[in-house]
Each structure stands twice: as C-alpha cells, then as structure tokens.
Amino acid sequence: xxxxxxxxxxxxxxxxxxxxxxxxxxxxxxxxxxxxxxxxxxxxxxxxxxxxxxxxxxxxxxxxxxxxxxxxxxxxxxxxxxxxxxxxxxxxxxxxxxxxxxxxxxxxxxxxxxxxxxxxxxxxxxxxxxxxxxxxxxxxxxxxxxxxxxxx
Length: 152
Description:
The protein is of the alpha/beta class. The protein has helices spanning 16-32, 48-63, 83-87, 95-105, 137-148, and strands spanning 7-13, 40-46, 71-75, 110-115, 129-132. 40% of the residues lie in helices and 19% in strands. Strands 2-1-3-4-5 form a five-stranded parallel beta sheet, sandwiched between helices.
C-alpha cells in the first residue's frame, strides 16, 4: 500500500515572484499527477522573520500533538527580512538562519535549500538537499521524494 500520509511543507523566500514560481510548480505537480507528490499541504512565508514565527508556532503545536512541518524549502539570500532574527541573536537574512532554527525547534525536520547564487553557502549540517531556483515541477517532486523518502 502506498504512503497516503499528508506531508506539510513550508516554503520560504523573500521574492514574491519566486514564491509564485514555486506555487505554480506545486500546482503543476498536482495537475500532472507526478508520482510521490499527492497529499502535500503547502504553506508559504515571505522572508526569514515570517518563517521563524511559523516554525515556532509549529513547534508549539507539535508539543500539543498537532501535525507539524515535515519539510522546509528555503531560499538563501533574503535581505531585509531577518531584522527580528538578528535582534534576537538567531542569525541573519538567509536560509541558514531558517534551516538552523527549524532543526532546533523541530528535530528531525528536513530542509531543501534553493538559490540563484552560490549553493555552497548553505550549511550542510542543516540542509539536506540544495538546488538552483526551483521552477520545474519534476525537479521539485524529485527533491521532495529524495529528501522525505518515498511514497505517493
């Protein structure tokens, strides 16, 4: 029997255009019924501070037994979106801040990094897979399946 469990995914980027491209890629995955991509629950965050807030709320929900985030897909460069994170000493305006915070708050979470810049800037301690900017639904599906493992 195939895995029919919902997977909750948090997508983080500072670019409205890139969030739209990822949303379109998720829509095309669903429309094309690409294997391994059914039952995805996607939330979108605009920037670092929004992502940290969402991850923190999910960590609180996990303690109460609620379904929480299984996977974070984050951009690297997100200038001007991590003011609160910096003020709280959590990092700066980038995907490593999001990835590390997610790992601290939601142990076992998987993170995919995507960027239009230098992919080597992602910290491999917290980021499971790294890609160029994601717009292709097949690439997105493959990254999700590889990172989370498996089923439909």
